[in-house]
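Provenance

Sequences were taken from public entries as deposited. Structures were produced by running a predictor on each sequence independently, with no templates supplied. The record for HPr family phosphocarrier protein from Cohnella luojiensis is shown for reference.
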Amino acid sequence: MSGIATTAIIEINRTANRYESSIVLHADNKYIDVKSILGLTLTLIRDDVYRLDVHGPDETEARKGMKEIFEKHDLAVRFEV
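Predicted structure for HPr family phosphocarrier protein:
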């Protein structure tokens, strides 16, 4: 997969924005706020296992929601501990 569909980026961004927790994507030595649609557009461009850092009051729900949306779009994701 060379690029990620615009609909996937929008859905990932909207899902992240439902949560109060901080959600940070690690990719190529970059740290991207998943709530930033521009950051996602510039980062989700290749087939990879994406790492997410989730911290905050609703992090359990945020992890579950982010896992579901990444999987929906056939994107591999793992969570930092």
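The two ends are 27 Å apart (CA to CA).
Residues 6-79 form a domain with the Histidine-containing Protein; Chain: A; fold (CATH 3.30.1340.10).
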